[in-house]
Amino acid sequence: MAAHLKTNYDKLIKAFTSKPCNLKETNVALANLKLGMIEAGLLIPQPGVKAVELRIAREVLEIGAYASIRSRDVPSFDRYYSQLLTFYVDYSETLPPSPHEPAIRGLYLIRLLTQNRIADFHTSLESLDPEVIATNSYIKHPVNLERWLMEGSYSKVWNAREEAPAEEYKFFVDSLMGTIRNEIASCQEAAYDSLPLKDAATLLFFKTQTELLKFAEHRGWQIDLTGGLIYFKKKNEEKVEIPKQRIIAASLAYARELEQIV
C-alpha cells in the first residue's frame, strides 16, 4: 500500500475506533482514502491487485457504511453497500470472509424494509446461505422484522429495537417505526372521531406526551389538552349529487313506453 494511503488508513482506524467515534475525522479520512483508492485501482478493483490490498479496501468501505449510518446519511450507505457487493460476491473465493459482512447485509435488509421493498428484500435474502439466515443474529433480526410486519405485530417490531444486534440497526428500526406510526395514524383517522391522549400515545408507541403532540401537529390533528382528547382531521367526503328530477322523468317515460308495448 502506498505511503499516503497507509497514513490515511491509520487515521481512519484511529478516528473510527475512538470512544466516542470521531465522525468528523472519520469522514475526512474516508474522503481522502477513496480518492487514493481510485488512483490505485482499489475502489473498483483492477486485475493484479494484491489480496491484502483488496482486504484493506473492503475494510475501508465497511467502515464507510457504518459511518454513513452514524451520520444519518442513508444514500451514502446505499453507495457503500453497492461497492461492497463487488468484494462480497466477486472476490468471495479470493478473500477470507469478512466478519462485518453479515452485519452490513443485515443493515441493508432493514433498509429495504423501511422502503417497503419486500420483493427486493426476499431477493437479497435468497442470495445468502440458508445456514446464515437461520443462525446469524445479524440476519435473523431483519427476517423477524419482516415477518412481524406482515403479521401486523407492530409491538414486536417496537420491542426489537432494544434487541438490535448492533447500534446502527436502531437507526433503521426507528425509521421503520415512523412508517408504522403513519399507517396506524391513518387507521385511527378512519376509525375514530377522537381518542384520549393516553390511548393515542399507547397505540402509536410514544413514550411521552411531547412526542405525541409533535406527531399530532404534523398530522393536522386538533388537541384538547383540558379534555385530554385528540380530534382527528377527517378528509372531506366526496358528495355525489343525484339528479332526482331527471331520473324520475326518465322512469316515467320508460313506464309509458312499456304501457304502449302492452
UniProtKB/TrEMBL annotation:
InterPro entries xref list: 26S_Psome_Rpn12, CSN8_PSD8_EIF3K, PCI_dom
Signal sequence region: none
Keywords from the named record: Proteasome
Domain named PCI: residues: 73-247
Record bears the keyword Cell membrane: no
PROSITE patterns: PCI
GO CC field: cytosol; nucleus; proteasome regulatory particle, lid subcomplex
GO biological process: proteasome-mediated ubiquitin-dependent protein catabolic process
Domain of life according to the entry: Eukaryota
Stated family: Belongs to the proteasome subunit S14 family.
Protein name, UniProt field: COP9 signalosome
Protein's organism: Crepidotus variabilis
